Amino acid sequence: MFDTGPFALFKWEKLFSDWRIFAEGFVTTISVSFLGLLLALVLGLIFGVLATSQFRSAKIINRIYVEFIQNTPLVIQVFFLYNGLPHLDIVLPVFAVGVIGVGVYHGAYIAEVVRAGIQAIHRGQLEAAYSQGFTFWQAMRYIILPQAKIIIFPPLTNQAVSLIKNTSVMAMVAGGDLMYHADSWSSNNLYYGPAYIVVGLLYLSLCLPLARFADYLERKAKMNP
């Protein structure tokens, strides 16, 4: 039973003897996920706050960014960074393409999360801050955002889970991530079964704790509205 078939024992032995290939991809996936999430958080915070600004131009800028990014596939955005920018004499390393690709993509979704969190805070608190001499940005920093973070954190964690899974799009541009290494390895020897099972388990080891953490934050937010 274990001598033949897609999950034959010798295929698993080959996989574990080449564990460094998968480890390299795993480290790249973690690195891209971490830096991409940082970029997404910065963009999401900036554009989320702009969406609640009193200035019409700021709201228009926010909508252009959110609508364009959310309504075009991530793979097209990554292909543009990898294949389109070189025509403008801008050549990015594949690692940077991955970070910018998932960072900008999920930044649009996080901007909506931040916007919703801010708008859930009663408008009177912002007006009270203005009456005390706070500027818009000071009111956001010291009064509105500290309260909104309780609402923002659960969906934010879900976005982190999605971002980690979406790093697999780097495999389409030879990005050196976990999926790329697994696909390259299994294409050379046709041992697809063990490769994809191990890759799935490695993604699960990253995403499942975050998903459980998001559930915990959501329950906590409901208990302390």
TrEMBL record:
Highest rank taxon of the organism: Bacteria
Subcellular location(s) of the protein: Cell inner membrane; Cell membrane
Pfam families: BPD_transp_1
Topology versus the membrane: Multi-pass membrane protein
Gene3D superfamilies: MetI-like (1.10.3720.10)
Domain ABC transmembrane type-1: 26-214
A single BP term in Gene Ontology: amino acid transport
TM stretches of this protein: 26-52, 64-84, 90-111, 194-214
Gene Ontology cellular component list: ATP-binding cassette (ABC) transporter complex
Annotated keywords: Amino-acid transport, Cell membrane, Membrane, Transmembrane, Transmembrane helix, Transport
GO molecular function: transmembrane transporter activity
The UniProt record lists the keyword Transmembrane helix: yes
Known function: Part of the binding-protein-dependent transport system for glutamine; probably responsible for the translocation of the substrate across the membrane.
PANTHER family: GLUTAMINE TRANSPORT SYSTEM PERMEASE PROTEIN GLNP (PTHR30614:SF20), MEMBRANE COMPONENT OF AMINO ACID ABC TRANSPORTER (PTHR30614)
Entry similarity comment: Belongs to the binding-protein-dependent transport system permease family. HisMQ subfamily.
Record's protein name: Polar amino acid ABC transporter, inner membrane subunit
Organism: Thermodesulfobium narugense DSM 14796
